[in-house]
């Protein structure tokens, strides 16, 4: 019973962070599960399915607001989904549960992704200001060569995200959105966020199912986390209006950076 309460509280904490800041799902849940003693493959696999469920409702909301560019989402998926399936078929297997070397590599990779995510969130506005005036990508007035380069780089971004998300459960949110800002600076922020979430759901679902089919998902853990996350997101959304965004994002960035350093250098 005590373990169940801790897991529900963990789900609520991460859900609260998502509702409060808009980011932090995969970046926080997997580290928390590792700190609670779960093996890295199980923590990552369970978190991937957790992310697919929690972000699923966001797709419906953004589609109603017409915030999703389905063409770009399809290009991202064309890169990420095959890579994720390939990793699931040829890399991930039930031996990972007892493989200390592989778990160590995954943990360090996770730490690096957490540090990168904290940096991306920190400098996101600077990145937007730096590239928005140049209008380098995503403009209908650009040449056909520019458009082709943009489409190609979008698929490449999908491949990179497919690798990172499948191995660590981190990257589909903040990192994917930040790079989309670079590729499509003419877009409004809500279109970037909507398209990013629309891509994150099938990617995390496919990656999570790969872990599930290899018996690396704890379903009891998953349902416990979801029981806490839904009310947590609701509460975080309402509380977020009471605190300055800079303060809350600063807390999140600090937590991600410290966790990243811990898993990279000390674990």
How would you briefly describe this protein structure?
The protein has 267 residues and is mostly helical. The protein has helices spanning 2-21, 25-35, 40-64, 70-90, 100-122, 124-131, 144-168, 174-183, 189-213, 219-239, 245-266. The two termini are 28 Å apart.
Please describe what this structure looks like:
The chain has eleven helices and no strands. It starts with a helix and ends with a helix. The protein has 267 residues and is mainly α. It has one domain (2-266).
Q: What is the rounded Rg?
A: 18 Å
| Fraction in beta strands | under 5%
Number of helices: 11
Question: Overall 3D geometry?
Answer: globular
H/E topology pattern? HHHHHHHHHHH
Sketch the major β-sheet: none
**How many structural domains?**
1
Overall average residue pLDDT: 80
Low-confidence stretches: 133-143
* Helical proportion, percent range: over 70%
Q: Strand tally, please?
A: 0
**Terminal CA distance:** 28 Å
Quickly give the structural class: mainly alpha
């Amino acid at each position: 019973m005590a373990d169940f309460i801790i897991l529900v509280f963990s789900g609520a904490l991460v859900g609260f962070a998502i509702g409060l800041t808009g980011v932090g799902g995969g970046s926080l849940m997997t580290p928390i599960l590792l700190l609670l003693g779960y093996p890295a493959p199980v923590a990552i696999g369970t978190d991937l399915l957790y992310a697919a469920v929690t972000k699923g409702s966001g797709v419906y909301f953004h589609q109603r607001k017409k915030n999703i560019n389905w063409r770009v989402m399809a290009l991202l998926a064309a890169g990420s989904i095959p890579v994720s399936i390939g990793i699931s078929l040829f890399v991930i297997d039930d031996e990972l549960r007892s493989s200390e070397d592989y778990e160590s590599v995954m943990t360090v990779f996770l730490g690096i992704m957490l540090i990168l995510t904290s940096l991306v969130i920190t400098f996101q506005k600077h990145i937007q200001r730096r590239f928005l005036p140049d209008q380098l990508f995503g403009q209908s007035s650009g040449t056909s060569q520019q458009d082709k380069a943009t489409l190609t780089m979008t698929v490449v971004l999908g491949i990179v995200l497919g690798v990172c998300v499948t191995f660590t459960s981190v990257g589909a949110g903040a990192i994917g959105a930040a790079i989309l800002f670079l590729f499509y600076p003419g877009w409004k922020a809500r279109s970037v966020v909507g398209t990013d979430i629309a891509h994150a759901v099938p990617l995390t679902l496919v990656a999570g199912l790969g872990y599930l089919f290899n018996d690396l998902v704890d379903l009891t853990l998953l349902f416990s986390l979801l029981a806490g996350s839904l009310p947590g997101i609701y509460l975080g959304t309402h509380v977020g209006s009471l605190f300055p965004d800079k303060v809350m994002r600063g807390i999140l960035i600090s937590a991600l950076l410290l966790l990243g350093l811990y898993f990279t250098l000390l674990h």
